[in-house]
Amino acid sequence: MPGTPSQSRNFKLLVAQYGQKYGILVALVLVCVILAFANEYFLTTRNLVNVLRQTSINGILAIGMTFVILTRGIDLSVGSVVALAGVVSASFATTATTAMVPGGPYPAVFALAIGVLVGVVCGLINGVIVAFFRVPSFVATLGMLSAARGLTLLYAGGKPVPALTDSFRYIGTESILGVPMPVVLFALVFFASLWVLTSTRFGRHVYAAGGNPHAARVSGVNVNRVRLLVYVISGGLAGAAGMILAARTGSALTQAGIAYELDAIAAVVIGGTSLSGGVGKVTGTLIGALLIAVVNNGLDLMGVESYYQQVIKGMLIVAAVMLDQARSKQA
Amino acid sequence: MSAVSGDMRGEILAEALLQVRGLKKHFGGVAALSNGQFCLMPGSVHALCGGNGAGKSTFLTIVMGIQDRDAGIILRNGREVVFAKPSDAHAAGISIIEQELGPIPAMTVAENIFLGREPLARFGRVDFASMNRRAQELLDSLEFGISARTVMMDLTVAEMQLVEIAKALSHDAEVIIMDEPTSALGGAEASRLFAAIGRLKAAGKGIIYVSHRLSEIFQIADSYTVFRDGEFVGEGAIADVSREALIQMIVGRPLTEEFVKENTPGDEVALSVRHLNALDWVKDISFDAHRGEILVLYGLMGSGRSEVFERLWGLSEDRGGEVRLFGQPTNIRKPAQAIAQGLAFVTEDRKETGLVLTSDVRANLCLAHLDQLRLGPVMLKRREAAASQRMIDAFSIKTPSDRLEVSGLSGGNQQKVVLGRWFMTDPKVLMLDEPTRGVDVGAKREIYRIMSEFAKAGGAVVMISSEADEVLGMADRVVVLRDGRISGVLERAELSAESLLHLAA
């Protein structure tokens, strides 16, 4: 029966839901259109590829963060894990004579596996502390933020790990069909996560455990296991991001990744994922990360001082959430 | 409806504490309230009745100044008033005691009562001595027997409710709105509340009482007003209306029977519980639930009934005891095992432990059945959609699409989603904890029908209920709990409200 009051109400609900879904995409497109007119260089392939490359590391961290935030948690340790995984994996792939790992450099695949493993172990520790010792994630991962940074400095003796092998640097510097490797990896992570969250049982469990952990538990969801795994995912992805960063710059820095967790959280929040759990999508996070990168790029192109960029990013984060609140009130 | 008296409709009654006429409110294009009408006289308890979605909540939020109205007038003591914010309503002597209480648990009773208007001594220091004294005087004058210095979290739910009443009166409220005040109370605690209501009435206050529990309304109310689909349907004196007539007014069609019960208990034992302990205070619980039987666990709040369910469901640790399903010993340590064994558990509070409110209807329906709808780690989306549709049809869940968030559904439909989730798992034993709390009479009857059909088809139902009417209407046998132990077992033939209360209290 078209046109009945309940039908028009459903239509309104749907519009509200779509608005929530695509509002941030509209903002991204709008910013791109404005920049395209404001600066002739913006729409060049070279610049767009550059933007994507700049998005990829924050994007990978933000996707891991999305999993954590969907379960009502937060992972503040990703920036430090970036550095730790960077120096540890790099120590297996350096040609420097001062190498701390004897017998190197090892094959890149081995070094990369070690880096992911470092991230996974950090995530596992976070997850165990949050899920089984009932420590709030904010505190548990704040501890890891400090501890992993300290371990990074201890491991590397406070110095960068330089002179990485070309095969290790492949993941940061090479391209496939003109697409830089970091972007390729980011795309892989994105599509894999999209599939996990929308099509697997684990994805269903993440949304249920985040939306209402009590109800999920009663319905047979192993909520602790879900909580553990999201930190492992976040840690593993932070490990990967750390190696991409080291590979791009050619050496692993002990101060790499400082405050990266904040940009990752910003991308997730701008992307519409709720900090109270159970609501959000990786597509939103992708758009959020792109929006941050595009705005930064645009301000760079227009020669705006980097101090202003921070102010504008701050306003962007808050404005995105304010918009979200206003919309959800309407619906 | 015949109960509408002409003079109340047209005239303004100067002696009425609160009179509302022609109240309208739209949300978007939808009328939540199209003609709200109400008249509260001093020294009376006036029940506001209606199903879920009848417009009661909208009506109350407008009267309390939380929302504005599109049209209509509100008269307080015969004078027209406009409340732009809740504090305006408070100032006019109207207070509300809400379904979900908002006490600050770590503060004392006195601090809660005087929250936001603490008496001050010099230099802005809170004058605790005077605050405690005034709060205690108030509590004593109401004969509540609560110390003003008690920390809120040490009180029972009923006592917290009494504190809310005291708080309302400390605002000099003349009109007190109670929204489902007994939904979290047991029988004895409810009678304490009713005694307090009696004293308020004697003091000339007017009480607007909102409840789905008709027996309460007939017990304490003097008059009633019924809303349906946002419209005023009728009003009158409780003494002049029968229970059947009131139900008919609320649901809008005649209900042949309030309860549906067509099952007959069989001989085969489905669930057998022996000497079960839970936590450290629920001890030695033994009962058998047969196929085709509706067994009720009855008891007051804190009698241990929910704890028995939680133990059976593997939510609390093993403290001894034996559980058999169809003769086979089981060792359920977590919910997934219980589900695999053919048990289903509809929890007490659908918002707290039942639904994932942020997810859509389909995700909620399929949540306990995901293992049967997947191939390896991958969900089979078509089978999910089909399973979800099957439950929507089976329980006639009213939703335009199963991709809409479950929070948008009415209470009764939400409860049916929880039931649907468990029926999807094709259970043999159904555990229901207060399955009809907070749903309207129409939806209640459907839930009874579902239970009855399940038992009739050979399933076993174990239900926790604190509504005596419901127990009398549905139970084949009742196991009564008191202080964590079984205090008696009643066969259907021996059931009466008195025998239940006798064993429970």
Automatic annotation (TrEMBL), chain A:
<feature type="transmembrane region" description="Helical">
    <location>
        <begin position="138"/>
        <end position="156"/>
    </location>
</feature>
<feature type="transmembrane region" description="Helical">
    <location>
        <begin position="80"/>
        <end position="101"/>
    </location>
</feature>
<dbReference type="Pfam" id="PF02653">
    <property type="entry name" value="BPD_transp_2"/>
</dbReference>
<feature type="transmembrane region" description="Helical">
    <location>
        <begin position="55"/>
        <end position="74"/>
    </location>
</feature>
<keyword id="KW-1003">Cell membrane</keyword>
<protein>
    <submittedName>
        <fullName>Monosaccharide-transporting ATPase</fullName>
        <ecNumber>3.6.3.17</ecNumber>
    </submittedName>
</protein>
<dbReference type="InterPro" id="IPR001851">
    <property type="entry name" value="ABC_transp_permease"/>
</dbReference>
<feature type="transmembrane region" description="Helical">
    <location>
        <begin position="108"/>
        <end position="132"/>
    </location>
</feature>
<keyword id="KW-0472">Membrane</keyword>
<dbReference type="GO" id="GO:0016787">
    <property type="term" value="F:hydrolase activity"/>
</dbReference>
<dbReference type="GO" id="GO:0022857">
    <property type="term" value="F:transmembrane transporter activity"/>
</dbReference>
<feature type="transmembrane region" description="Helical">
    <location>
        <begin position="176"/>
        <end position="197"/>
    </location>
</feature>
<feature type="transmembrane region" description="Helical">
    <location>
        <begin position="228"/>
        <end position="247"/>
    </location>
</feature>
<feature type="transmembrane region" description="Helical">
    <location>
        <begin position="22"/>
        <end position="43"/>
    </location>
</feature>
<keyword id="KW-0812">Transmembrane</keyword>
<keyword id="KW-0378">Hydrolase</keyword>
<keyword id="KW-0813">Transport</keyword>
<dbReference type="GO" id="GO:0005886">
    <property type="term" value="C:plasma membrane"/>
</dbReference>
<keyword id="KW-1133">Transmembrane helix</keyword>
<keyword id="KW-0997">Cell inner membrane</keyword>
<feature type="transmembrane region" description="Helical">
    <location>
        <begin position="268"/>
        <end position="295"/>
    </location>
</feature>
